Amino acid sequence: MYYCCGITEKGVMPHNEDALLIGRRIFDMGADEQTITGAFTAAVSDGVSGENSGEVASKMCLEKLKDADVSEPGIIGENILAIHRQIRDHSRESEEDRNMQTTLCGVRIDDSGSVTAFNVGDSRLYSYQCGRLRQISRDQSLVQMLIERGSITASQSKTHIRRNIIFPVIGSNSADPKVDVSVMSQPMECGDMLLLCTDGLSDHVPAMDIQEILELPKPLPERLSILVKTALERHSNDNISIIAILCQEKDIG
Q1: If exposure means fewest CB atoms within 10 Å of the residue's CB, which of 3, 90, 102, 219 is most exposed?
Q2: pTM for the full model?
Q3: In whole angstroms, how far apart are CA 155 and each of 43, 147, 232, 235?
Q4: 8: left (phi over 0), alpha (psi -120 to 50) or beta
Q5: Which CATH class is domain 2-247?
């Protein structure tokens, strides 16, 4: 059994281009919490700023993901690419939604507690176990590539002139995205938590600070609100969205 809660905040932006999926629910404003038993999907989607209709792209992506077959790791990548092509084709046919694009980061948890992670773009998945936060997803961005090559440090990436450049995402007209899919090595156990977030949080609240806030002896929705507030206090200039998934039982299914 899993306790899931999510929150999304438009912040300083005029409207919210983020959307969240928890189970069968999609929302792009406020907060949601629910308890889920059995297999389910959770994801965050961040409409690309500077392009048309980011808010349409993010919600459309999650609507299609909600009904897609993501039951097996081997088919997740191809089915997410199918969603990309549907959104790309829609944007080509619609003047209003021309070139709309979105990131996608999520998990599929099966009946045994096994977790399959998938990612396109620079939204993030973290694992929180035994008081330790660990990044699971890999940012698909230019600065991440430069970090991995040793050209810049993680600290330098925060102010790099090209820090906002990400590789092709869902809906891109230039190229198909690369869908990163991985099965986590251990199934979730009681007390384990997964955290999904858009870059409005991760760009302004480092992993160590996220970890410290998650350690607070407060209800989980309150801790998520503190994370949002911290990002805003640190001048996040983007929408901020977070989903937390807490495993409440060892013996699942």
Answers
A1: 219
A2: 0.92
A3: 27, 10, 20, 17
A4: beta
A5: alpha beta
Q: Are strands 40-46 and 18-22 parallel, antiparallel or unpaired?
A: antiparallel
Taking a C-beta distance cutoff of 8 angstroms, is the pair 177, 168 a contact? yes
Q: Which one, of 19, 46, 15, lies nearest residue 121 by Cα?
A: 46
Q: At what angle do helices 220-233 and 207-214 cross, to 10 degrees?
A: 150
Distance CA 177, CA 119 (A): 10
Contact yes or no for 171/230 (Cβ under 8 A): no
d(CA 225, CA 143): 28
Distance, in Å, from the CA atom of 189 to the CA atom of 23, rounded to the nearest integer, reads: 19
The H or E element containing residue 208 is: helix 207-214
Cβ atoms 240, 198 nearer than 8 A: yes
Phi, psi of 174 (to 5 degrees): -80, -35
Alpha carbon distance, N-terminus to C-terminus of the chain: 8
pLDDT tens digits for range 73-111:
999 999 999 999 999 999 999 888 888 999 999 999 999
Query: Do residues 58 and 46 make contact, with C-beta atoms less than 8 angstroms apart?
Result: yes
Radius of gyration of the chain (CA): 17
In the structure encoding, which two tokens stand for residue 236, read together? 């996040």
User: Got the DSSP string for 24-90?
Assistant: TEEESSEEEEEEE-S-EEEEEEEBPTTSTTHHHHHHHHHHHHHHS--SSHHHHHHHHHHHHHHHHHH
If DSSP codes are grouped into helix, strand and coil, which group holds residue 8? strand
DSSP secondary structure letter of residue 224: H
